[in-house]
Specification:
2 copies of one chain form a homodimer. Chain A is of the alpha/beta class. Chain A has helices at about 5-15, 15-25, 30-45, 50-55, 80-90, 110-120, 135-145, 175-185, 200-215, 230-240, 255-270, 305-320; strands spanning about 65-70, 95-105, 125-130, 150, 165-170, 190-195, 225, 250-255, 280-285, 295-300, 330, 335. Chain A has a 6-stranded parallel beta sheet, with helices on both faces. Chain A has a 6-stranded mixed beta sheet with strand order 7-6-8-9-10-12, sandwiched between helices. The interface between A and B is large, with 48 and 48 residues. β2 of chain A pairs antiparallel with β2 (about 95-105) of chain B, so a sheet runs across the interface. Chain B binds a DNA duplex through α2 and α4.
Chain lengths: ~350, ~350
Amino acid sequence: MKELNSTEIARLAGVSRSTVSRVVNGYANVPPETRDHVMKIINENEYYPLLSGQLLAGKRTGTLGFFWISDASIASDTQSSSFVVHVTEGAASHGYLILTSILKNLTDEDNINWVKRIFLQKRIDAGIFVGVSNDEPLLDDLASRGNIIGVFDYYRPDKNAPNLISINFETDTGSKVIDYACGLGHRKIAVINSGLNHYSSMTRRQSFLAGMKKHNIEIREKWMCNAGISEESGYKACKELLGNRGELPTIICANNDSVAFGVYSALREEGISIPDQISITGIDGHVRAKTIVPPLTSFAFNFKSFFYSLVSRTIAAIAAKPDNPATEFLHSELVERGSCRRIE
Amino acid sequence: MKELNSTEIARLAGVSRSTVSRVVNGYANVPPETRDHVMKIINENEYYPLLSGQLLAGKRTGTLGFFWISDASIASDTQSSSFVVHVTEGAASHGYLILTSILKNLTDEDNINWVKRIFLQKRIDAGIFVGVSNDEPLLDDLASRGNIIGVFDYYRPDKNAPNLISINFETDTGSKVIDYACGLGHRKIAVINSGLNHYSSMTRRQSFLAGMKKHNIEIREKWMCNAGISEESGYKACKELLGNRGELPTIICANNDSVAFGVYSALREEGISIPDQISITGIDGHVRAKTIVPPLTSFAFNFKSFFYSLVSRTIAAIAAKPDNPATEFLHSELVERGSCRRIE
DNA sequence: CTGAAAGCGCTTACAG
DNA sequence: CTGAAAGCGCTTACAG
């Protein structure tokens, strides 16, 4: 089979390669008959311009890098798995493809080089990052070199990188959770927060504390636990919380639903019933929250629409570099289910 | 900043572009001193050859397409979400990148064109497909044009496409499940199988029936249910099974764990206890199987190692096209947990 | 061991 | 409206 390139299409259509290119790219200055004729040849032969030629001539890749940072196994968590789906589908709705990398962190030399290579080889027009801590020199470096960066959960207004676009969680979810718990009459409140240095973890910790102060809740060392963001970490933190029992809280507020699921397992093992003995709240709106028993009351975010927004804004920035950094805050919505009871 | 290309590196290093290229590609015919010197310049400047130039000169992309076909929302299913992780990590271990597409099917014209475009633009060296039915003209078409295709759950020896590489489930899982159920003394067996035309669904249906015949189990129309592969479909199928009750089976054998989870929800709603009133078996070895209550007894597959194998074999085929089609069968392993009881 | 040169397939000013 | 030509950044025979 003869190699199919623009020269061949030009020959078959009886025009020049320039004209083929104009038709392929949908430029206006081609008369309809010519366009239709060339288009017919193109379709008949299933001709697609080779990406390499287009790139070298200055076109964009139409590809976004998706960098998924997690030190744990993300294969098993639905919540973070869904992110790749949202990003991929969001990008596809703009005709963009996604080039995925999974990395333990952005600080090991190998990982840094892996990411840099992808940008510097010009494999992608922009990069989307998920799972970063709030201090990532690599992101600042990439952004300062003019790369377009979209980040989930990263807030560094001090860096003033105009082409670093982000979405962030609202910063007051923790205090909303405490409001809710107090509204149900709870005063013995335990919090399992993430000890990670994600922006959301940091703000949520402060917000939990602020909420407790506001309601004059006693803050007990032992009831302020640190976990990660995974189910296992929630399980472990809760087991520790229950270790040589002592007085028990009436409610445990988890920093996310996965952690709450871990709390469920730990409580079940200890024979503590939910919500009769201990109530539980989560944050996220995980798909499993409604099928677990009892269904988990949670402050839910609409991740899908926010990833779509992040992707859209990132793609928009490719065409027209923004001149100031932009972020957007996700707002949560309380979904009450069966994991919390009122204390009289 | 001056554009950084091989000409610039050559100038800085005082050699020709040819030599720069030789160093970049690690060719042997460069004396160590020259190599080290050029390498130093390359590293200092963080030079990476532009992909476009390399491609046009005939290099491969180092990228695999990952085509994830699902008509349901895959964002919510851990099992299939984990596939993208296995494929991405497996590819990365060979230095390959993954370009992800999520498609409802491989038959709509838009989807066909989307996939074809990716191959024909030469964005990828090979494609990995997951979630296909066992009759996909597009796959056969792509393979016949010389593209390297790796497929999960596809078995068409009749097509004899040498560059179509696959992994498949063992074909006797259904009968193993029935052996197990009968071993526990069950005779009233319901099966919820997938009605999809995936190769695994088809073989599993036959295998369930074969197992039941072997043990002389009465096959009741109402107890042979069709679902999909999702939790919701399992829930629905089980609800139907229980509709205007009649006699109940003592065990329900689900075609996968997600479907089994749906069965859990349906039984819980109907106030039927597991395993006291009805036992349940699953297939897959889903991560949630061990935390759900009661933990689900399942025939587990090691998906990770098999995806790694599929990816490895696909990548190997890029370098040296195989001369006959290759498949590999996954074998399951029974993991007994708490969802089945012995019938005396 | 090394450089000059051809060539990969496009797009896009440029000239007409 | 359209074609001839330059140019994008690499790699790789080829010649020495």
